[in-house]
UniProtKB/TrEMBL annotation:
Gene Ontology terms describing biological process: DNA transposition
Domain Transposase IS200-like, chain residue ranges per copy: 2-55
Entries under InterPro entries matching the protein: Transposase_17, Transposase_17_sf
Protein name: Transposase IS200-family protein
């Protein structure tokens, strides 16, 4: 799958460039969540917000960064 490949490759490259990520993500599953959202037409802001909220519940345990 295209998205899975992109996530694996970017995770690997980011881990090499930013060594501290290995300390932050202890489970070696990568830095990205498993989900992704794709749509061509017919969505609105409410649908996107529901997806983001569901991802927040699924991604519990991931490190939260403050910017």
């Amino acid at each position: 799958m295209v998205v899975e490949t992109l996530k694996k490759n970017t995770s690997r490259h980011m881990s090499k460039k930013f060594r501290f990520l290995k300390e932050v993500y202890w489970d070696n599953e990568g830095i990205w969540s498993k989900g992704f959202f794709v749509s061509t037409v017919g969505i609105d802001e409410a649908i996107i917000c529901r997806y983001i909220q569901s991802q927040e519940k699924e991604d519990t345990g991931q490190t939260k960064f403050e910017f």
